[in-house]
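Hi, here's the filled form for the chain we discussed.

Project: internal
Contact: R.S.
Residues: 197
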Amino acid sequence: MKNLVIYVHGKGGNVDETLHYKSLFSDADVLGFDYKAETPWDAQKEFPVYFDSVAVGYDDVTLIANSIGAFFSMNALGDKPIKQAYFISPMVNLEKLICDMMMWAGVSEEELREKKTVPTNFGETLSWEYLCYVRENPLVWPIPTKILYGSNDNLTSLETMREFAQKIGAPLTVMDGGEHWFHTTEQMSFLDKWILK
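And the returned structure, exactly as it came back:
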């Protein structure tokens, strides 16, 4: 029985984070995916090619994905033979997030449609193409999945996460005081226990 674990980092993350998961899956090969995609349509081209190239010869493939990496994975890998997935702070409703960011930046839909892209003072560039894409391509994710969420996640509300978890039938674990980015010793220890149980 050959097992493979693929780790997909979030924005600003990197493939080195994969090392953390090697000890949790000692009976599997653990690979980190150092993807280049910055949009879901690029991920749709890049992710399946990577998956097909590394998954050959394995009996079971497990996916661990973080934040936007989880969104890209759902957008691109839903038809792949993945046995189970672990999503950490997944981005599950990009339309709502983009609309929230437009509100924070004081940008109307008309303005975004006209200008195509609008930089914000909090470091994100709003994109009309991105907003249209997520509206026209709702997520379909049939793979058994567990979701980990921090109660202090500033990008996705608990209500949005609950709705999504219910929609795909995924058990949702909430870490009280956890953040969008799980990185402190306490948060990583909670994450490890969540994966191992």
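Let me know if anything looks off before we file it.
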